[in-house]
Amino acid sequence: MNANDYLQLALYLVALLLLAKPxxxxxxxxxxxxxxxxxxxxxxxxxxxxxxxxxxxxxxxxWKRYALAMLCFNMLGLLAVYALQxxxxxxxxNPQHMAAVSPDSxxxxxxxxxxxxxxxxYGGESTMSYLTxxxxxxxxxxxxxxxxxxxxxxxxxxxxxxxxKGLGNFWVDLVRSTLYVLLPLSLLLSIVLVSQGVxxxxxxxxxxxxVQASSYTEAVKDEAGKPRMAAxxxxxxxxxxxxxxxxxxxxxxxxxAIKQLGTNGGGFFNVNSAHPYENPxxxxxxxxxxxxxxxPAGLCLTFGRMVGDRxxxxxxxAAMLVIFVPLLLACTAAEQAGNPALHGLAVDQxxxxxxxxxxxxxxxxxxxxxxxxxxxxxxxxxxxxxxxxMHDSYTPLGGLVPMWLIQLGEVIFGGVGSGLYGMLAxxxxxxxxxxxxxxxxxxxxxxxxxxxxxxxxSLTVLLxxxxxxxxxxxxxxxxxxxxxxxxxxAHGFSEVLYALSSASNNNGSAFAGLSANTPFWNVLLGVCxxxxxxxxxxxMLALAGSLAAKRHVPATAGTLPTHTPLFVTLLACVVVVxxxxxxxxxxxxxxxxxxxxxxx
Amino acid sequence: xxxxxxxxxxxxxxxxxxxxxxxLLAAVADAFRKLAPRQQFRNPVMFVVYVCSVLTTLxxxxxxxxxxxxPTGFIFAVSLWLWFTxxxxxxxxxxxxxxxxxxxxxxxxxxxxxxxxxxxxxxxDAFITYxxxxxxxxxxxxxxxxxxxxxxDGEVVEGAAxxxxxxxxxxxxxxxxxxGGDRSAVTGGTRVLSDWLVVRIxxxxxxxxxxxxxxxxxxxxxxxxPNEIALTIMLAKFTLxxxxxxxxxxxxSIYSVQAAGSGQPITLTxxxxxxxxxxxxxxxxxxxxxxxAGMDRMIRANVIATSGRAVEAAGDVDVLLLDKTGTIxxxxxxxxxxxxxxxxxxxxxxxxxxxxxxxxxxxxxxxxVVLAKERFGLREHDLERLHAQFVPFxxxxxxxxxxxxxxxxxxxxxxxxxxxxxxxxxxxPAALKRAADDIARRGATPLMVxxxxxPLGVIELKDVIKGGIKERFAEMRAMGIxxxxxxxxNPLTAAxxxxxxxxxxxxxxxxxxxxLKLIRDIQAENRLVAMCGDGTNDAPALAQADVAVAxxxxxxxxxxxxxxVDLDSNPTKLIEVVEIGKQMLITRGALTTFSxxxxxxxxxxxxxxxxxxxxxxxxxxxxxxxxxxxSAILSAVIFNALIIVVLIPLALKGxxxxxxxxxxxxxxxxxxxxxxxxxxxxxxxKLIDMLLVLLRLA
Lengths: 600, 698
Prior knowledge:
heterodimer; A: mainly alpha; two-stranded antiparallel sheet; B: alpha+beta; Rossmann fold; 8-stranded antiparallel β-sheet; ion transport (chain A); Potassium-transporting ATPase potassium-binding subunit (chain A)
């Protein structure tokens, strides 16, 4: 890595932290119980929405009611996305006359977008009508993100409130996160993206002449469709001239803004943000990758403000950065070091004025090593899952980083809302261990952590791990699972492990190389995505409900402070140790074997 | 058993220290007995080990039949060490219980069924029927004469006697028990040495203090404490993660072998070994021993807790309420200085004070005599020879003194003397009154001395703060525990003593109601309160406090209200109780951290050994350079078993506790048990591997 690499990474982190603070403060006002200058701005719109939907905005919901509202709302969204896909041939805004999506793929996609995973077994420009993209996927991008934030707010209130039954109102939290946070930010970002060249229209695909005409050869086929053989035994071919190409169109910019901001990640086009119409310039790339971590980082600080001790928010953010920054450097360094298989050959893999150097396979030249690695690490740290390069083509260690970040449970930033509440589950576990070691019944933010809290936190930590290891086992044992694997050996295993890790942690990125749009994979991954999202959210709401009912224990010198570097280190260690201990054997058979094998 | 036997037995062996040979042998036998599946099922971690041991044994039998998945000797060795792992865990628990059992046996010998003299009505002269003590019920009255065992717990309603309580307390000096007041409680199984008592029985058979004590030390009444349950949940979570991670390794391995086209899938033996190494067996094995040992430490501190929950709550205490007298200060005030009235010679004051105190047998009176001798070399006079007449202290006059010739010397509280002076036509000089106020402000007690209606001066009686108590309070503060002194003194005096002793706060002119209110106020702030008490009027406060230590010398009501009884009746013990509570939690936390940190090294031992046939490159992970795949796996399993044995003393003794703030304590324990837990197994596994190679077992 050279100075330029470090500079680009530093610039990214500085911009992220500078923007996270005001956003965090702003969101604390948005979700505050008392009316304030922010909520007064949209009060009339809010009231109008509540009246139109028949919502009793002042109802304080207990955790069960909150969970039920969340679940019903999301099931409804899931059904809507399914129906839109199945019925799209008969619905408007389908200029390319896309056929109905197959039932298994439609279910997979519906779950994927309702769970904020945005795993895509389909290719956007060859499958979905504009209406499905906008009304189905685009709307779910907003709502699944808003659901995540709403659940987080309920969890935060569990810590803030004492001797209380209610955790707030799901509908109010949902409306506010959409109205005050997601919509304005998306609007802003999509306008900037359009200025960079991201498409935003409802036109049919454009047929344009190519700048330089070319041709390719194709086998001549007989009536039966078999290649015609020449007398010499080889196939008869003919040249096919290429004079035009098809450029996909569509309302991309509006969807890309929210897919980045809401840690959704589902691309408008098949190759996601590697596509020039999704991510045309280095500036658009910088803004999009910044948008991935912006809200998750801001929410940490919102948390600090809401619990009345900003240091608590900074501590959680610091614990995330302690893991994120080294992995960011590791991934970038591994990619910049180039392909070990090419070492010793006459290949120059060094960065110079003329080339990015390093391992450029599967990466866009306009983003280079840093732009690609930075995105790969951010998208897997957050449960975004959008890509601007193909992780399958990374060096074994470079590819290990995003895979392992996902396996850490999507708590290093993680999904909007869901990442932080997952991290809070880890914090509960860390506080418990630490509490024992200082000889006191553990407390976090003045709430005693007892058996019930441990049960719920354990469930939250455990569930994604269970889904990954069992899902992978099923996939490698089932012939239908193995059939989708493109590469032999350890790398093939990595592809399977990555796909299950991605689905079971609601990330949604793909390693590529795995043909996953088959009934087997659609069902397996669909089940994983569903179980990783909703049971986990309900467990956290139950935890919050129990915390809210507890009384507040005042801090003394015997209370373990949870804002110190010591606690930050401990929390980071717990996250890393759980992730490492669970996945080390599997990783040894995948990327580690891959890496060590390539070294010889 | 006669009295002398009882005394020698109790003073020497009531508290069982160290491990005798017999204790160890009994524990070994118990370790095997505990292999019953029902016993194992209670502990999820060890139950997994149990299943694994059975599985590897079956694999070994299969190998013996000639269908082994690995060499018979290897499977046998793994299986053997898995059984050892279980046995070591059982042994840890058995040895922790063993001490309690030995103590229970000693206690049980005091619970002999004796013949009780049941009285028809509560009077010494009432009609006596002889009944076995097991037939006594609450409300019965019994007569106990000198040399007899008290048949059951009760309250003295008539008489006073010296009682040997060594069977319970281990203290051989007899104590006085008398009706009325705070020394009326007697315990069944103790012996009246002199005089007689009429006792009202307050417990039914099987519910007596001795029964409860036996149940406690035996662990029969031991239920898992809240933190222990939460910890078990967390350990179960880790166990489940590892169980799944290991179980799914088999399909991964089969797939990898197919994909790579080389090597063998991982064997069940290796998979089982890996699983047992990864799950937190160290803490799982020692968890119950730690809990039992915590109770045991309480018992050795001569504190009987009614439940493990109470011990654990002691570690969480935020506020300690401490009685001034006996806890913070020595029980008695001592004369510190003479302050003569204007125009009176200090020596004259000392002389008068000495005369007034010669017959005063209270420690305060004696200290005045001592001070007079120290300051002016005044010899003690013989009152009889002086024809002096002693005027004892009475509640009405609140004075004492001596009449001798024309002298009428009186000493007493300032207001009492002032009233006496005014009645005699004199008055208290303003200078003297100021001196008395100054003394009170310093936290001392002024004692006015007059001769007739002539004021002579003031004696300054000082509370003597116990040595080292200030340091203990500083430690408490570092631990985040607030200390509050409870005293009947006036606020001025209380403030001065509080400052000198270094307590954080005080409650002056304390009444039982004020004490109860203070506890409720603190609890309303969600803080846990610990206190100790002995009197019947302490009972409501004891019942309200979260941790309540009743003095064994106290009344039955106080003992019933508290959740711990201090057999030594030493109020300072409260501090020790808090430390034991904390130590128990810390030991659990430290061993949990150690156990999980150990896994890193075990991965480095087993993963290359298990998968290198498929991907030879994975041998690069064999950083310990273990000799062979089998020796690597065996070394990890052996280390995993032996570390339990190595840590048994730590589990029983508890992690060394230091009074530090939470942050410093965490840093220290993380360094020792976290980093230590990472490093130790690398060394241990390597050493075992070298030994296996040396013995040609690998």
